[in-house]
Amino acid sequence: MPSTDQNASDDSAWMAKAIELAVEAKGTNPADTPIAALVVMDGKLVASGVNRTAECCDATAHAEIVALRAAGQAAGEMRVEGATLYSTLQPCGMCTMASIWAGVSRVVYGAGRDDVHEMYFEDRHLSTLDFIADAYKDDLTLTGGVRADECAPLYFHPWDDVPEDLQGND
Ligand SMILES: [Zn+2]
Question: What distances in angstroms separate CA 167 from CA 68, 117, 138, 155, 164, one per listed residue?
Fold first, then answer.
C-alpha cells in the first residue's frame, strides 16, 4: 500500500496513542522496557500490548506479540487480515514474522534500529527490513520513523553503556 497523506496523519495519531500506552504502563525508564504495540483495523483499535518479558518470564512476550495475541482473541481467529501493527520500536525478527502469520499488511514503527542501542536487535548484518523486503515484499509494508524523536528517548541510546544484566540479547 503506498504511503498517503491520510496514512501519515493516521500513523502519527496512532503512534501517539502507542507512546501514551507505553509510558502509562511502564514509565519512561529504558530499563523498564516501555515498548507498546497496537493492532488497528479499518481505523479502529482492535488490541494493544506492552512488553511483558520480565513480568511473565516469557522471552516471547514482546509488545507486538502480546498485542497480536489479544487481537486474535478479539477477532475470534488467529488472523487479523489487513490490520496495521504499530510499535514504538522497530519490531524484531520474531515479531515481524508473527505479523506475517497473523495476516498484518502494514507494520508501522517509531524508533528504528539506528536510533537505539544494538541490544534491541538480535541480528548483526541483515536487518529484518531487508529480509522482509526480499522475502515478503508484496505481503507486508513497513513504515518507520513515525514520531521517532518521541519514541527513541524511551530506549537506551546507541552510545549508552548498558549494564550486562539489562541486555536481552547476549
Ligand atoms: Zn519482538
Answer: 24, 10, 34, 12, 5
Question: Which cell numbers in the block locate residue 141?
Answer: 509494508
Query: Cβ of 98: how many Cβ atoms within 10 Å?
Result: 20
pLDDT, one tens digit per residue, over 65-116 is 999 999 999 999 999 999 999 999 999 888 988 998 999 999 999 999 889 9
Q: CA-to-CA distance for 45 and 93, rounded, in angstroms?
A: 24
| Full-model pTM | 0.91
Q: Report CA(64)–ligand 1 centroid distance (Å).
A: 6
Q: What residues act catalytically?
A: 64
Distance from the alpha carbon of residue 92 to the mean position of ligand 1, in angstroms: 4
Rounded to the nearest angstrom, the distance between the alpha carbon of 21 and the centre of ligand 1 is 17
